[in-house]
Amino acid sequence: MSEDVVYKCPAHGIGHCVTEPTTGLSFCECGRKCYPVQRSQLLQQQPKKSFFRTLIGGKKTYKPFRKVSKNPWLAKIIRIDTPAGAKQSVEKLSIEWIDTKYDYSDKGRTKRHLLIKSASEAIRRCKAQLKRKHLSFSEHKEFSQIIEIYALWLKKHRLRMM
Fold first, then answer.
1. Left (φ > 0), alpha (ψ -120 to 50) or beta: where does 148 sit?
2. Are both 13 and 45 inside the same structural domain?
3. How many domains are there within the chain?
4. Is residue 161 part of a domain?
5. Which of 5, 29, 74, 77 could form a disulfide with 118 if both were Cys (CB 3.0 to 4.6 A apart)?
6. What is the pTM of this model?
């Protein structure tokens, strides 16, 4: 065979194939038959992005940006469009917090935990928006104000040990 042909295993890729001198066939260490590939074709093939993600971080997927809360009940309350909307949603969150404050059952505690989680998720979403390249100065200012509003609410509302 010529120098520009390489044998590739369907499971392991290049470098694991051994050619038998008597038959001229190439087999991998796992026992599968390898097939010839031109070197120029290998240079043109681009590996998949998920392949790089598994090599670097170990995770195949990453979470996309979410504009609304995961919980449908809280999606109606939490707003990140304007600082005024964020203040209104913080007032509603505070009302919900007070309603469950003296409920010492597991239901009240889980509801307070959900309120804290949704506020921190709103902060995370605003920080993700701040990382965008093409934001105007006013948008940048609004998102930073929204982060401050939710961070202040989170600072005041913490779950206490029972």
1. alpha
2. yes
3. 2
4. no
5. 74
6. 0.58
